[in-house]
């Protein structure tokens, strides 16, 4: 599957794509629906997982499933919470020394599930542990107080409309999200207050970090807000990012800190990035000379806007003083929407953007609290930052996902 829909990578020959699609749709056509909950066919998630066959749909009733850990071994599964968000509470249990749910089959979708309390002896317990072929989709899920929220990789990974809060064991090696793959997309997601680790760490070859709320807030102790340690073609577009006063690291976005294994190409466009760490730091730190596009951003708070890289920059607003010169709606409550009092250097101050390696750089959406989205109005000249002034109306219709046989 392709995430997002405008992913620029090329498909394989049409015949191969149709053949692969036929296999997938055949599995879906033979799917059964398994129901979990009081009075249902399966009283535990584990029992349903053991019975599931390729292509099945598993529906889990709302409620607390304490110690009900499991592996998912079939492929092309969709597991969905119904009647509310069922809570997978580890309560000291773990599956295979890895986490609450361990995904072994290919092509897995989890929707509307809560995961908490995952701990394992090696310190890498995850709400979802995934490292298989195909795609992983995580939609409208909630991960909190685990050693890792999600840990693992897939060929294509999509995380959307989800919340990550206070994951990490405090060792700096565990995170809200630690993910990798050929294509990694995180969008419309609220990742905050990671415990010493990063709010988002991706080793993806192609990374689409779009329209998220990534924050430390008053009590978070995260290291980087976004860490892309091995480079990769990376798009950071339309996010609102806040580093808190207790951050463990002076950097906010880090790119290439460990290696240049992947393609070196970085786009940082129309983000609102706030540093509440009064000691300062670097909003964007690029190791090496990676080509880096920095446009239409708001950098607010103490620190250096960017360092390293071969930077092409224009139409950015930089304010190191804590004077609310951008005239945000309410900085104390982390509301960084623009207002009618925002200056002309912010309103209608954006530059027209084209494509970056085939991907449209002009923002089309905005993050809506809490882990939702709306379309960003594009009439007139683009404003700086993650939000267009005067935008209204919540549109939470998910963008379509299409088959991707790359």
Structural commentary:
This protein is mostly beta strands and 406 residues long. The protein has helices at 14-29, 45-51; strands spanning 33-36, 57-61, 64-66, 70-72, 77-82, 87-89, 99-103, 108-111, 114-116, 126-131, 135-139, 142-144, 148-153, 156-160, 163-165, 177-180, 183-187, 190-192, 200-202, 206-210, 213-215, 226-228, 232-237, 240-243, 251-255, 264-269, 272-275, 282-286, 291-295, 298-301, 304-307, 310-314, 317-319, 355-356, 359-360, 365-368, 372-375. It has two helices and 37 strands.
How do the helices and strands line up, and which of them pair or pack?
Elements: H1 14-29, E1 33-36, H2 45-51, E2 57-61, E3 64-66, E4 70-72, E5 77-82, E6 87-89, E7 99-103, E8 108-111, E9 114-116, E10 126-131, E11 135-139, E12 142-144, E13 148-153, E14 156-160, E15 163-165, E16 177-180, E17 183-187, E18 190-192, E19 200-202, E20 206-210, E21 213-215, E22 226-228, E23 232-237, E24 240-243, E25 251-255, E26 264-269, E27 272-275, E28 282-286, E29 291-295, E30 298-301, E31 304-307, E32 310-314, E33 317-319, E34 355-356, E35 359-360, E36 365-368, E37 372-375
Parallel strand pairs: 1-2, 2-5, 3-6, 4-7, 5-8, 6-9, 7-10, 8-11, 9-12, 10-13, 11-14, 12-15, 13-16, 14-17, 15-18, 16-19, 17-20, 18-21, 19-22, 20-23, 21-24, 22-25, 23-26, 24-27, 25-28, 26-29, 27-30, 28-31, 29-32, 30-33
Antiparallel strand pairs: 34-35, 36-37
């Amino acid at each position: 599957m392709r995430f997002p829909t405008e992913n620029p990578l090329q498909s394989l020959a049409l015949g191969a794509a149709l053949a692969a699609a036929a296999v997938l749709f055949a599995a879906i056509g033979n799917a059964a629906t398994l129901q979990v909950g009081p009075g249902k066919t399966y009283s535990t998630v584990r029992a349903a997982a053991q019975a599931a066959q390729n292509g099945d749909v598993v529906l889990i009733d709302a409620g607390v499933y304490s110690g009900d850990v499991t592996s998912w071994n079939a492929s092309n599964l969709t597991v969905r919470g119904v009647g509310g968000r069922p809570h997978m509470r580890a309560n000291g249990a773990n599956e295979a020394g890895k986490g609450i749910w361990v995904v072994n089959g290919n092509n897995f979708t989890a929707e509307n599930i809560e995961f908490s309390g995952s701990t394992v002896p090696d310190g890498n317990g995850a709400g979802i542990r995934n490292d298989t072929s195909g795609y992983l989709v995580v939609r409208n899920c909630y991960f909190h107080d685990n050693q890792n929220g999600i840990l693992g990789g897939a060929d294509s990974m999509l995380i959307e409309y989800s919340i990550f809060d206070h994951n990490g064991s405090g060792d700096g090696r565990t995170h809200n999200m630690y993910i990798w793959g050929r294509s990694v997309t995180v969008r419309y997601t609220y990742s905050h207050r990671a415990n010493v680790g990063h709010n988002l760490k991706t080793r993806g070859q192609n990374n689409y970090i779009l329209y998220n709320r990534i924050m430390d807030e008053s009590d978070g102790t995260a290291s980087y807000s976004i860490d892309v340690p091995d480079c990769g073609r990376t798009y950071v577009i339309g996010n609102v990012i806040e580093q808190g006063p207790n951050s463990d690291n002076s950097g906010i976005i880090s790119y290439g800190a460990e290696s240049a294994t992947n393609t070196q190409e970085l786009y940082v466009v129309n983000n609102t990035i706030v540093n509440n760490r009064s000691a300062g730091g670097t909003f964007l730190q690029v190791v090496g000379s990676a080509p880096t596009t920095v446009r239409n951003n708001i950098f607010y708070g103490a620190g250096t806007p960017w360092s390293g890289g071969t930077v092409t920059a224009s139409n950015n607003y930089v304010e190191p003083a804590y004077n609310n010169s951008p005239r945000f709606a309410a900085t104390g409550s982390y509301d960084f929407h623009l207002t009618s009092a925002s200056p002309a250097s912010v309103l209608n101050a954006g530059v027209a953007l084209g494509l970056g390696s085939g991907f449209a750089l002009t923002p089309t959406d905005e993050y809506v609290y809490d882990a939702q989205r709306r379309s960003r109005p594009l009439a007139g000249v683009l404003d700086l930052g993650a939000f267009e002034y005067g935008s209204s109306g919540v549109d939470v219709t998910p963008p379509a996902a299409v088959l991707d046989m790359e």
